[in-house]
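Example record

The entry below shows one chain as it appears in the dataset: sequence first, then structure tokens.
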Amino acid sequence: MTDTPLGELRDWFDTWAAYVRARNFVAARALFSPGVMGFGTHMRIVHGLDALERDQWRAVWPTITGFTFLTDEIEGGVSTDNTTAWAIVPWSSCGYAEDGTPFDRPGRATVVFNRKSNGEGWRAIHTHFSLAPGTPQKSWGNSDRA
């Protein structure tokens, strides 16, 4: 783990991206507060981790490949007591048209984090995902992908 707050957030995003690629919903849940609130490409507003997984993650992750946060471009900040943080980071992925044709599926995310004390792992309390302008809203998946 990186020993700077922004480095910790980079590590958090890299871990989450690996879970997205593996479609590991169970492991990903540990990175989030049970009361997380968010909105994204498939839902207007969602309250709670169960709804986030059901309405966003399970609607998207199985239909894309190659999901990666571009953590070299991360920007963010941490509170003076080191218990609240925020970050914005672009991401990339491959989506699939209804006929299985792949397309670039870039976007950006904002995540707000908290933790009880310095040294504990960050947990997301808010997420906002949006696709880059001009990107198709729906990915249909591709039965030939791994």
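Notes for this example: The beta strands are 32-39, 46-47, 65-69, 75-78, 84-96, 102-104, 107-114, 123-131. The chain has a mean pLDDT of 92.
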